[in-house]
Amino acid sequence: MRDQPVLSLRVAAAEAIAPTLRRVSLRAADGARLPPAAAGAHITLSLPASGHARPLKNAYTLVSADLEHGYTLIVRRTDPTRGGSQHIHEALAVGDVLEASVPHNLFALHSQAKKVLMIGGGIGITPLLAFIAALRARGTRFELHQICNSADLRVFAALIGAQPGEAVHLHAGRSTFDAAVVLGAQPLGTHVYSCGPAALMDAIAAQAAALGWPASHVHREDFGAAGGEPFTLTIGTSGARITVAADQTMLEALEAAGIDAGSLCRGGACGVCALPVRAGELEHRDHYLSADERQSGAVVMPCVSRARGDSLVLDI
Ligand code: FES
Predict the structure, then answer these.
(1) Residue to substitute in 265, 289, 300 for testing ligand 1 pocket (most ligand atoms within 8 angstroms of CB)
(2) CATH number of 115-221
């Protein structure tokens, strides 16, 4: 987060709402007003993590942001656990103070949408919870399809709190959700928002394109998925070598080595973390670069993309 304003947030409340879900409420450490955040916004938290000399930075969607309750997050404990979610589930306590970015919104609701179709997978429900509150307040028609494990059905239903007449559908697994049927039944002017596993969002985007939806009406929330083969990153200007572990992103490895590449979405969507590449083959996982830019191999989004091979040289 080069040169970006930083917030100091105090943990006001933290509770387990399911064995793998923890809800955390954050307020300004000095009691001041927090910057406002519209539905779909996220913050990046700096979290201490065992085995790491520097804090890890993780992006979390705000489930709610209001003057009364501050910012609220719901964090899934990942398996295998990575530093950020492990700290939030095992160590974070009321009164702790964390450093965070100001809220950014790359997944905002379109003000002209006649209807909003929301499709969530697993913990991808978090921005949709903020959307539901905003859409109820606006009086905009919406339809929600949330796909999850059967173990999460009850807790997700409680979080959504469907009101009479609302089109809320909870699916225990993908088998009862048919993207072609759901997208094909929407009136003109509908915007679709998906958040969840990349495969689900790719399927929604492909189906929407096949049905002729305008690209401007199809929105997705990408948060980076770490993981892949380990490789060695070489800093071209200094020759310094950094190992990117199997469960780590290139951006995290750079930050752990004290190199701040800058970031915003940490999910391959905004382009802020772009770095020039001097040598090496790339596995692009972002949704920002054009086909030509990918083909050139000159730029990489280190928050999600990796080396296709055992080494990569950055031109920094
Ligand atoms: S931080 Fe947004 S693309 Fe990497």
Answers:
(1) 265
(2) 3.40.50.80
